[in-house]
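We treat protein structure as text, and this decision shapes the records that our systems exchange. Because each token names a local backbone shape, the row as a whole describes the fold. For reference, a complete record is included directly beneath this paragraph.
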Amino acid sequence: MKIFQRVDDVKSDFCTFPRSFEKYRWYKPILVAVLTFIFYFILSILCDVLFGIFFPELFSSSLLYNPNSSPGLETVEGIYTSINIALIIPSFFISSMVVRDRPFSSYLSSRGGWNWEIFVKSSVIALIAYGIITLVEFLIFGVEFDNKFTILTLLAMIIVTLFQSFAEELMCRGFLMQTLGSWFRIPVVAIILQALFFTVIHSYNIMGLVDVLFSGLCYGVIAWYCDGLEVSSALHSVHNIIVFLTAGLTATELSNNITFEGSLEGILISLAAIAAIFLIDRKYNWIGLKRDNSVSE
């Protein structure tokens, strides 16, 4: 006997997928959210204690509390900030296991679980697209290199960014979009509302928030269309890795004050990466989007 029974006569896409489980109740996502907050609070305290022991100077750092700049992931401050975001993953996993209304994998995909093939292939295409565009920008506009990475901090940046990006996808495109979709049963409403939430949790100026809102809408549509978080997570992760890598290899610093040109550039680059993924899959059927794929959980 399966622990999580599906309702056979209920047809649902990614946004309304929670309604396909027999144990679905409209209020259960609220319980998951409350428990996630509690577990996250506990884990964040443990994280603060550990960082306080090994990096006692961290909490007096001007980078950590500067509203106009973001610490890069070549710094302890940046690693600390991203790990705090990544703590959403274990907090949410534990909460979903406590409530037990549906399997954790259902938040990631309505195809039966996470598909590594889709994620890896989408990441490769996104990395090539972002990498080429960034390299062309360097060649055209020039850049002053000032490497701040060591091998250890470079590896830490990549790993932590992957988890940080996935945590935001799980929270916004997984939990929130599916919850809103199951309540309103209108995917476009769920997509817009999760994008607005994704925007307000970022501390940028107006142009920066426009860029984030655009990304949130794109990631939401992609997760809905692809019935899972693999492609949106790949795009999100690669984008953030390129941003942190560029900042760590050059004399530039990350800023929360984005210019109109910077926002427009970010939107166009994201569109190029998205187009590359879907055009390659459409022409060569290489990734396997909207296909019945085997999954690994």
